[in-house]
């Protein structure tokens, strides 16, 4: 690794100089329970806390047709809906009296169940957690409350324009019926029955479709595994296959969608197709996104925000999905300056595609991504989680150990290859704001389609 | 550890001769260190006409110094002064409002833009932030509140000295360059808030509850104040409040206390202390009775109730914190069981015991989000019923025990991550005079009896102390987008 060439700040008297950081994340042994559930365990006795995160390969992409929203309804009910051994009220009271925290969040292809408890309460909390994940019962009242909440969130889904812009751009990019593009609707959520929720859970929430990261104040690894075996051992494997993911609807060209919502600021979301999560292009893509839209020195930040003063919030990041994710570039700006902001953003996207990254920018991007690598492992639980996700995401053991080199060895040509993904000629643009003010400015970038309010 | 609850962590403390407080806690799970530098300077220290100035300076603190972010300060300085003159001229014309001459305005704006472009020729880009990012800084950021401004980041520990060098330089000799461009960025930040129903409603609550005290002003500032900022305003704010005797630096992670002290002394000793401006704003007058306002906005309905709190440090404070937790903590609380479940009136009902800050008398906030077809009026009535019930019927020992256990677990969890802990320690030290404030607060909460909780609810959660703001679509407007 070359010595970092410091910029002029080295003119500060006595400013020290540094090379690139070498950090090798600790290995974590892969264990398994008798039912096949893989476990990554990191014992640390500094604080009397334990953490468990159970990852499931189940999310909104697995919703059956006509039941969009099922996964997002099922997830919170694992926590709130009661289980075979724990009526919901008793589970709530038990956990809350212990000061333990138990959350379940669902995403497109994953659901995460997290438990945090003081180590003295591990047995009690673990009993509730395991029963909830393996044997939920979806109590009627709790299901009604969760459904009511989901319906209310649909009513409120356009209250925050930045969320609308991103959601609708995604829907257009993948297709309204596509597993990655769908959104829950009142009809599909209202129609979901308790039996369907139970069937969804039974199909996907299985130990052979899951991975567990566990960390904290265990007396020993052996004792920890014994407790986990006792809690989860009777949970039987037998997960259903995930539905296939078709090709996205948007195959090329530029679409511009405009949703009318007068407000002080217009929200712009530009989505472009990305590679699969496991792809040799990911390191180059990470570096390009960093150069383009990550951090204070990135092109979007320094041009659209610092130099032109057009936005407070402007960024670009890659969203990873197993069968092909997307690049999201977003910006909030006053309606009167949306045209100017969009022109500058397109100019930067085009540059990213057309010109190889200059050496200094590539070097900056590498340092900005590589040097903070250590922070992925900043706590025992983050270490356990990262090692669990290596396998869970399909990267294979050793991915994290090769990660830094894969970035460091990316040359300008490889980065430029990934740059073709940023060509603004191929993009779905969604703008949410005052349509009367925005339509003329946007017309300069292509045909503008009005997006219905819903 | 094996189950035993920890006592207070072994935080090393030192006060430098110039008044800078240093706190260090060594934790070596990974070779990184997190820094948090808290200044007791926030929106509450901004006078009328200059609301948001503390936040504006926070932005400026990333723009470099006489040495960093500049190719040649001697050449740059007169160009920065020229930009100030252009800004002053523009402001003079803008202040005429409707009587301003559009052609002259356009010319003055172009002149300001040109002047800043000329000055920018001597700028060295984002050298301050760029240097830190390349060194591996993580979470480099800052925030401003009504009470304080906090600068924080985490960095691999072998390069901690680089941070000390840059951070000291940053506050000893800042140069608020690119000021007028950044003022535009802050205007966009403000517009971002104006586009958010939650932000708009909260802004209205504070403005309605505090008619003279600066807690009534939004932290980002009113738009007309932002428009009128001059670079000298930011410099004056820095000169008044960014002194070492107004700051606490916390370092948590892979750093030895002796080494941190050595580096603090090496780099921060040149920072001169100064007396702070005369003590604060006049107190907000007593509220004369219930206040109610409606905020028209294109979003689904919601409301806030803000009740006037007793002054900070008042004996009733601990009981009031308990009131909030009993009403709105978790899913076994009064609001969730009664209003989200039970009567199913609400998507959510929450509380916060001290907003927008806690240096001055603040608000006890209750937030309500109704579930269609129920509206704010119905949910608010139900909230008042819960408040009256709490005033009549003290909470059970179980309810209080739950809150105490949750607080204890929170304190312990708060010690896991370096960055969060650094911010907590530095903030508590600077604002409460005690880095162990949360531990002491827990002890105070343990002494609260059920009858104290009911008494506090009865004393403070009253109509005449309440400001209610409700967000609703303008009459006749359909949902858009």
In short:
The complex is a heterodimer of chains A (454) and B (481). By secondary structure, chain A is α+β, with helices and mostly antiparallel strands.
Describe, in plain words, how this protein is organized in 3D.
The complex is a heterodimer of chains A (454) and B (481). Chain A has 454 residues and is of the alpha+beta class. Chain A is built from 16 helices and 12 strands. Chain A has helices at 70-80, 88-98, 122-134, 140-155, 161-174, 186-191, 194-204, 221-232, 282-293, 299-307, 338-354, 359-370, 380-392, 399-408, 412-419, 435-443; strands at 30-32, 38-43, 49-56, 101-106, 111-118, 210-216, 254-260, 266-273, 314-319, 326-333, 427-433, 448-451. The N and C termini of chain A lie far apart (53 Å). By secondary structure, chain B is an alpha+beta fold. In chain B, strands 1-2-6-3-5-4 form a 6-stranded mixed sheet, with helices on both faces. A 5-stranded mixed sheet of chain B has the order 7-11-8-10-9, with helices on both faces. Chain B starts with 11 loop residues before the first strand and ends in a 9-residue tail after the last strand.
Question: Which features characterize this protein?
Answer:
heterodimer, A: 454 residues, alpha+beta, six-stranded mixed β-sheet, globular, disordered N terminus, B: 481 residues, five-stranded mixed β-sheet, 45% helix
